[in-house]
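Exercise: predict the structure of this protein bound to flavin-adenine dinucleotide.
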Amino acid sequence: MSTAPSGPDQGREQAFDVVVVGAGFAGLYMLYRLRGLGFSVHVYEQGAGVGGTWYWNRYPGARCDIESMQYSYSFSEELQQEWNWSERYASQPEILEYANHVADRFNLRTDISFNTRVERAEFDEATGTWSVAIPNRPPVRASFIVLATGCLSNARIPDIKGLSDFKGPVYHTGQWPHEDIDFTGKRVGVIGTGSSALQSVPLIAQQASLSSRLRYLELLILLGALQAFAPLSIDMYLPALPVIEKVYTPEMVRQWLSAGRRGAIVRRRWRRSPDARKQTERLGIW
Ligand SMILES: Cc1cc2nc3c(=O)[nH]c(=O)nc-3n(C[C@H](O)[C@H](O)[C@H](O)COP(=O)(O)OP(=O)(O)OC[C@H]3O[C@@H](n4cnc5c(N)ncnc54)[C@H](O)[C@@H]3O)c2cc1C
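Solution:
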């Protein structure tokens, strides 16, 4: 993977009608659309490839929690017909493949500079243009800037006391390495209880050796999240159940899912999903 800035005429001052920042799904579409409207457009992307969220979040288990069909561009009927999603909720590698396919299919890369972070933009009242600052290059001029920078694209490293002294490797799901990580025999702690934890813990747990305390905490994370998800997305998390059962035993899962007030909430939410109902029947809950 090259980290050298790419793109045309790096040493020369350039001017475009529109500068787009970010080559995620929004940035790719802006480029396609604005080009079609006859504007000169250039996209600057700090990563080495297209896909945004799906370029950065390569952690094990990463996938879409809305149906793949809905997570697709609708601007081209040909594109819609020629692309077949292999799963109902696509995994990160497949979504990234789709983004790359779109970039190639519509020849978008020629107007994207990769490994290029936009640092600043200033509006020049005299000329009525933006001056876009990019490290080690002359500023780029543009009449318009579109910030297709997403709302979750810059990973936030939490300010945890002692984190910098931690001797083991530290990974962030939003900056996951491109190569596989082998967790075999490692003791792994996961900080955070959102979707990324829910998706990655079952897969990491297949390899990792977990202390009982960690097991307990992860059980809380996973089952808490399983309960919380709305009926629509519950289906997507069901494949995690067999893995959770391997790590924690079906009996623990059964107890957790059916206990007290929590049981009532789970029952109410899960009842609406036929697949979820099947799982609860299989586990002998309710
Ligand atoms: C882990 C995760 C899972 C998600 N799952 C779903 C899901 O299942 N369903 C759903 O609908 N949504 C999901 N989302 C939300 C997702 O972000 C959006 O669906 C969508 O991909 C956002 O696209 P975007 O192009 O707006 O932004 P992004 O995909 O975030 O792309 C923004 C791009 O801008 C670049 N950038 C940012 N700042 C700069 C800068 N200064 N200079 C140059 N480049 C810059 C970034 O590197 C990035 O590539 C998820 C988000 C995350 C983080």
